[in-house]
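pls design
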């Protein structure tokens, strides 16, 4: 079988071999057996012929397992090795080579090979691609090999990589009768755009993500929390900083910028003007003061841009332009080899050229946005669309990468101006408009006179020729009725533009008093409106009137909000002259009610009725005013209240005086319902999940797509038609996580717009959002609760009424789970050996959990338990089940279960299977057992197991030989049961326990040492003379060297059998430590000590027994059948002679009597008298002796009396 391209065992070689064997008499061909019968025939034929090999025509080259047999000569396709073709190429790289090494399996050669482009990710049709493959060249090599090359130029790119797919078509030269084989190979090349990193902050879940695909994500950790994001833009306070790791801290994914040429672009808006000392940071690449590649700040106490770049000779610092506030600005910094250029809104505002020999300096530090290392603090504002490119961008490219700036806003520069009604030489009045913020694209707005609210009479330029004409003013030129006068800012401009209004050139001779002309911007085009949106031109009447012109005036801003404490006045004024006494009669009207909507201020006109009059004396021209203050009415939604003063007539001496009542005979104050409203959280509590959308997090625990944004709504209600702009500051307590580091950033303040007739309340305007940007710390912790509060702002003229000032926010922990698996082992574990099971921990190390491990044997023999197969007491941890604990930091990375198996003998030669199961994790959400996807599932799912086969072998345990034998003729007819005393002198019974270890050459497990212990599990009076030992285990040992034994001394009993349990433990291994053993053998031996009852016989036929008549023990003729009264035993421990029938002990001097064995009977010892038994007093001279020829047995003192012949000789009868 051949798995690699080589010249050995080629298909064509087989054909050649057969052809070489062909002769006139023999026709060799390929064949393959197709069934077992043919295979057997082939094997038999080979054996008969003495052949060792045959050629078989079979292959599965095309598809693994799909065997082709008995086919025609096969030509395999050529193999292409494209590993020399670069798979990642920078844009604009020229002459990129496509290379493939070709090998023909039959070594015939390559007929043709061609590279072509078959796909370009930028185009649906590759024919539209600007990539051209050229210079296809095929070069032949040795042994049927060849090399094919082609080249192409990488395209120009900007923000997106391009994927190019090239196809290689190859046709080989066939061998012999085979047909040519064709093959193809595909190579996909990524063309890298110049975009190094791009941050658009549009992802709710991961605003820190680098969307360029290069993986330079900003940090969002407890140590470096990501700043808040508002409406898809980075919102920076003075302490905020966004950090992107450089290669110094992240060698693989760290951000690196070329030293000589690059481009940095972003949008930003300064939301708070510069104040205080110290630079305010925008962006810096580099960790130290001198490491600037580049650095941008705002100057202290101003909004002047400051740019810097470190070189080999200096740290260059340039001051650029003073920037507008609250205006999105497009910023582009272009670093060229010999200097740098700075653009604001596509306009070059600074250019700097390096000196001779001056070179840029790269650094490996981090990228900082906001509070950079060199700055004292961050600028307060917004940043968006931050981009870094690895080359200089062209003007066209610079215009593409950032959205165009907004058009801006237009307003009058002043609310009012004053001019005489005519001017003889220069009758023009100039009124200025200002275009603020925004772009410098061309813009045209239209201005017109609002005649409805003006008292001056408009006309044309022709009307001004005759001074007596009623027209008071006219636009200088270009005015179109119904459209207005165009005011234009040419392209490239911003700031002030003006228009001109002409007055009369001479006195019109009309006594009319001061007249007003109010101008509006009637068409803003695409610009936004701003205040002031109305300009009032006051024309001073120069026509002499010695008696005075009377009118009533109101402030330019005649709207008085009800919560204002300011005093507003409606005044009757006398202008131009003051001759004569004049009484002015007025009338009060309107919807405003005194002492409900307003009150008069002491010292002013305080009318007592709706009509009245004021008197101007001769020479008096001081104004007569109604001064009033609004009264704040708690009712909301009330319409505007109006107070109007109308001059209805003048009383004077008509013969002497002629005062004038002008057209401005009426003026009003509007008292506006003005309620700031109530503010409250939309709910008492909110809940947000950590934005962990890692694929390993169980789907049910991940935040939903809409839940990635953590928002708390605060609602303004009960406002009036008009309401002030409102600001609430936000505070959060506590602001630290369980781990002691910040878990989030949040919106610092909420703002509501002012409400007016035109800017009305909407759900979006009245509901403001506190946005929490949660840190995905991926650290298991308990859910946290913080209290979020809103506080009214002070010093803005009103206090916000907060009715629900706090809410509880629960931060739900979402943590990627750990993974626990029971690892497989390829090592064979024999019966008796230790089964070592590795529990491997992977996945998230910042988790803390416990699992239950359990061990069981599958398919046990009936009646057997797990303990019959496994020694749990010798396992680590002990027991068949228990808890395993895993702590934070991935400790432990793995855990081991060491399970002691047993060499079981009851299952023959069969193997057995041990199952190790992990189950019941706590908490279940942070660990997947067996698979990460099992995390947070039911216990029936979130578990794993692995089965281990314990292999039956030929072991010490299988062949160990354990025997037992009686030492002193005390064996019974029942195995394992022994008499408590020996057969003659009544010594304690003993049993020898012996073990023979098999020869080492005959077992699979070659232990270095054999160890053993004998231990009494229940002695009941038994003793052992040997409790353990060990010996070196080697090949060729004699049996005696492989054997060991112990002697068990039995406990005495004369009533019931006594069972003693002896545990034999044998283990083999490298040393004497049982924990290191390769196998452990255990056997419990049950040895029973039994009472030994026999007749005590005198003279061959007489049995010692109690004589009821003589009331003593006598040697009478033995009964035909054995009686209990005739049975005796000896207690070697207490040295008692015990009679079974009496259940009593023999005692006394003289006649042999009986007594209770617990009453301290006489003690005896048994001695050997020429093969017979003497019963003697322990330590004395008394002996059991028959007196003369009678039956009486006397306890006789041999020191005084003799016991002749056989009178003191006894024998034991058979065991009963």
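designed seq:
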């Amino acid at each position: 079988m051949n798995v690699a391209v080589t010249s050995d065992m080629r298909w064509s070689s087989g054909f050649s071999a057969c052809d070489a064997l062909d002769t006139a008499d023999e026709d060799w061909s390929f064949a393959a057996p197709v069934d077992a019968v043919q295979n057997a025939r082939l094997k038999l034929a080979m054996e008969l012929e003495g052949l060792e090999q045959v050629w078989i025509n079979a292959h599965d080259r095309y598809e693994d397992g799909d065997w082709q047999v008995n086919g025609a000569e096969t030509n395999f396709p050529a193999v292409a090795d494209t590993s020399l073709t670069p798979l990642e190429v920078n844009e604009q790289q020229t002459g990129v080579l496509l290379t493939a090494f070709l090998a023909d399996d039959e070594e015939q050669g390559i007929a043709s090979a061609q590279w072509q482009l078959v796909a370009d990710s930028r185009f649906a049709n590759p024919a539209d691609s600007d990539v051209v493959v050229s210079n296809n060249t095929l070069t032949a090599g040795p042994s049927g090999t060849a090399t094919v090359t082609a080249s192409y130029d990488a395209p120009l790119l900007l923000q997106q990589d391009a994927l190019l797919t090239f196809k290689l078509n190859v046709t080989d030269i066939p061998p012999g009768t085979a047909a040519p084989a064709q093959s193809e190979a595909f190579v996909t090349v990524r063309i890298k755009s110049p975009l190094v990193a791009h941050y658009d902050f549009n992802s709710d879940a991961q605003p820190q993500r680098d969307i360029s695909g290069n993986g330079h994500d900003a940090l969002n950790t407890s140590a470096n929390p990501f700043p808040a994001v508002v409406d898809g833009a980075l919102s920076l306070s003075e302490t905020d900083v966004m950090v992107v790791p450089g290669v110094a801290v992240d060698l693989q994914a760290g951000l690196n910028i070329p030293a000589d040429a690059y481009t940095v672009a972003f949008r930003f808006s300064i939301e708070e003007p510069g104040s205080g000392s110290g630079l305010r940071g925008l962006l810096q690449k580099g960790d130290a003061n001198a490491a600037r590649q580049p650095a941008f700040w705002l100057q202290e106490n101003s909004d002047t841009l400051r740019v810097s770049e470190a070189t080999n000779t200096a740290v260059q610092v340039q001051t650029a332009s003073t920037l507008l506030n609250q205006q999105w600005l497009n910023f582009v910094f272009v670093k060229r080899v010999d200097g740098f250029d700075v653009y604001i809104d596509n306009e070059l505002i600074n250019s700097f050229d390096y000196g001779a020999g001056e070179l840029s300096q790269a650094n490996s530090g981090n990228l900082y946005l906001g509070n950079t290392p060199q700055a004292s603090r961050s600028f307060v504002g917004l940043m968006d669309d931050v981009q870094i490119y690895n080359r200089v961008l062209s003007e066209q490219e610079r215009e593409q990468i950032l959205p165009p700036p907004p058009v801006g806003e237009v307003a009058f520069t002043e609310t009012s101006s004053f001019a005489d009604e005519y001017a003889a030489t220069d009758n023009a009045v100039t009124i200025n408009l200002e275009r603020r913020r925004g772009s410098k694209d061309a813009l045209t707005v239209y201005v017109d006179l609002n005649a409805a609210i003006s008292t001056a009479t408009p006309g044309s330029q022709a009307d001004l020729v005759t001074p007596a004409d009623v027209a008071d003013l006219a636009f200088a030129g270009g005015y179109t009725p119904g459209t207005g006068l165009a005011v234009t800012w040419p392209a490239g401009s911003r700031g002030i533009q003006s228009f001109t209004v002409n007055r009369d050139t001479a006195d019109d001779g009309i006594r009319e008093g001061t007249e007003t002309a109010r101008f509006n911007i009637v068409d803003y085009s695409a610009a936004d409106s701003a205040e002031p949106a109305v300009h009032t031109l006051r024309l001073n009447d120069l026509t002499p009137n010695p008696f005075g012109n009377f009118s009533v005036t109101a402030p330019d801003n005649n709207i008085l909000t009800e919560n204002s404490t300011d005093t507003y006045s409606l005044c009757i004024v006398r202008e131009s002259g003051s001759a004569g006494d004049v009484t002015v009669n007025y009338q009060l009207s309107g919807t405003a009610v005194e002492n409900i909507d307003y009150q008069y201020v002491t010292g002013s006109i305080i009318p007592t009725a709706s009509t009245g009059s004021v008197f101007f004396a001769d020479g008096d021209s001081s104004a007569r005013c109604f001064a009033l203050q609004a009264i704040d009415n708690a009712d909301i939604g009330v319409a505007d209240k109006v107070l109007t003063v109308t001059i209805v007539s003048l009383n004077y001496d008509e013969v002497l005086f002629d005062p004038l009542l002008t057209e401005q005979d009426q003026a009003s104050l509007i008292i506006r319902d003005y309620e700031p409203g109530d503010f409250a959280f939309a709910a008492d509590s909110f809940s947000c999940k950590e934005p962990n959308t890692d694929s390993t997090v169980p789907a049910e625990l991940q935040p939903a797509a809409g839940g990635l944004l953590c928002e708390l709504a605060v609602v303004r209600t009960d406002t009036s038609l008009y309401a002030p702009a409102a600001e609430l500051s936000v505070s959060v307590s506590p602001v630290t996580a369980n781990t002691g580091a910040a878990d989030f950033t949040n919106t610092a303040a909420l703002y509501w717009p002012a409400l007016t007739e035109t800017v009305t309340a909407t759900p979006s305007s009245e509901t403001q959002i506190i946005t929490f940007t949660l840190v995905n710390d991926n650290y298991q912790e308990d859910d946290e609760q913080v209290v979020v509060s809103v506080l009214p702002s002070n010093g803005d003229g009103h206090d916000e009424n907060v009715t629900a000032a706090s809410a509880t926010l629960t931060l739900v922990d979402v943590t990627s789970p750990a993974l626990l698996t029971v690892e497989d082992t390829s090592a064979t574990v024999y019966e008796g050996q230790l089964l070592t099971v590795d529990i491997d921990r992977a996945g998230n190390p910042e988790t803390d959990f416990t699992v239950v491990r359990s061990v069981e044997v599958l398919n046990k023999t009936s009646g057997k338990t797990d303990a019959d197969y496994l020694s749990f007491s010798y396992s680590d941890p002990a027991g068949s089940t228990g808890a395993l604990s895993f702590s934070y930091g991935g400790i432990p990375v793995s855990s081991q279960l060491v399970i002691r198996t047993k060499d079981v003998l009851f299952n023959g030669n069969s193997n057995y299977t041990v199952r190790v199961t992990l189950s019941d994790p706590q908490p279940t959400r942070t660990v997947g057992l067996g698979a990460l996807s099992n995390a947070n599932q039911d216990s029936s799912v979130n578990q794993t197991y692995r089965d281990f086969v314990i292999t039956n072998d030929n072991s010490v345990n299988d062949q160990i030989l354990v025997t037992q034998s009686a030492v002193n003729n005390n064996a019974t007819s029942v195995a394992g049961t022994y008499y408590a005393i020996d057969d003659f002198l009544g010594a304690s019974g003993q049993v020898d326990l012996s073990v023979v270890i098999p020869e080492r050459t005959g077992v699979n497990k070659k232990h270095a040492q054999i160890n053993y212990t004998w231990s009494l599990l229940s002695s009941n009076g038994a003793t052992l003379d040997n409790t353990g030992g060990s010996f070196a285990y080697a090949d060729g040992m004699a049996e005696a060297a492989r054997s060991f034994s112990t002697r068990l001394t039995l406990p005495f009993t004369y009533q019931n059998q006594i069972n003693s349990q002896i545990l034999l433990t044998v283990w083999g291994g490298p040393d004497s430590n049982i924990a290191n053993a390769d196998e452990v053998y255990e056997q419990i031996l049950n040895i029973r000590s039994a009472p030994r009852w026999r007749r005590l016989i005198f003279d061959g036929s007489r049995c010692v027994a109690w004589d009821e008549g003589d009331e003593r023990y006598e040697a009478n003729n033995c009964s035909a059948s054995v009686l209990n009264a005739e049975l005796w035993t000896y207690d070697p421990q207490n040295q008692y002679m015990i009679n079974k029938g009496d259940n009593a002990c023999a005692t006394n001097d003289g006649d042999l009597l009986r007594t209770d064995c617990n009453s301290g009977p006489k003690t005896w010892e048994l001695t050997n008298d020429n093969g017979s038994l003497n019963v003697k007093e322990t330590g004395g001279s008394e002996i059991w002796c028959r007196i003369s020829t009678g039956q009486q047995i006397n306890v006789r003192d041999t020191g005084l009396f003799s016991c002749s012949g056989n009178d003191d000789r006894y024998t034991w009868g058979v065991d009963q």
